[in-house]
Amino acid sequence: MKFAQFLPACLVLAIIGRLIFKLVVIKTPCRKNVDFQWNRVLFLNDSDVSNVDFTRDSIEWPEDTILPIDKCNVERLYVIVVHSAIGNADRRNRLRGIIESLEGERPHLIFSIGRTRNTTLQNEVENESKIFKDLLQTHSLDDYRLLPSKAHSWIRFLSQNCTNKIKFVLKIDDDVNVNFNLFKEFLETRETRKQQVLCSPFKHIADRRKKSTWYLSEKEFRHRNLGYFCAGLAYIISADLLPNMLRNSAYRRVVWLDDWYVTHSLLVGETVKIYDISSLYFVSETIQDAYRQLSQIKMGLRPIPMFSHLRPRKFFDQQRQSYLWEQSQQCLLQLDEDDELLESEAEQARKASTLNNIFIVQ
């Protein structure tokens, strides 16, 4: 009986709350990326440990079996280097199509791959290279734990052929989504800066769990602390750093974690700043967290992402990845032409968001 007395008031409050929420969703513009603030600026030499070991003799890196043709023959703002598994021709074709569709000046594109013992697959790769002229194949086998060889391959090629023709290197994996138009606008604000790395950095200890994907034995890496390094899915390096990185690769002991090797080991001792742009990454390992981030993007609480990488595959198949990426590139403000669609999107955002209505209204 008492509940019935309060029912009309509850209904009124619920309706008002829904109207307020919808109003906030419509009126809150997506946060402008030009207002982006650095989370922090890091210096590798501030690391609390010296964790880079040196070799007595110069390392003999394997030669490359396939080289890109006509790359860096003209000046470009940046070059895209993609770490790609040798069998991932479909992913390479997807990226080629995206770059081909870009308006205006297109960046150089290079795929860094390893070698295979499969003669049929190797023949297919050689034919692919003749058609697209964008493959860089190292003689090392295409293996997850030999990724530093892929990295050294493109560092060497770019150092010897491209440093005077480009200003930045964007390294990505072949399953990463990139908003290239936003990326170009972002880089143009950094064009005159030297000795810089832009990425999603973190600090970690060596993983000693033998069953872990990132296992490091004490024999391979005797230190406990890995220090600061960049997430390998996507990072940006100013091209002026490449010659010194190539020089350093001759005597820095190789650790199979290629993101650590490139963005920590090869840069320690250099005058370099690491700019934290983590908020421009849409990265998640759970569906719930992915939708939480998406709701924040749509409500303008986070900038539209420049990069996206969602895994594992059992949670994020290609269809779901594509949907989440496409949704992250627009805000609810742009959907007001279709009230039904707006209502649906608002409902999804409300369910996924961990923010309460009081905070949203404020």
From TrEMBL:
It is found in: Golgi apparatus membrane. GO terms for cellular component: Golgi membrane. InterPro entries: Glyco_trans_31. Its EC number is 2.4.1.-. It is a single-pass type II membrane protein. This is Hexosyltransferase. Signal peptide: none annotated. One of its GO terms (molecular function) is hexosyltransferase activity. Keywords: Glycosyltransferase, Golgi apparatus, Membrane, Signal-anchor, Transferase, Transmembrane, Transmembrane helix.
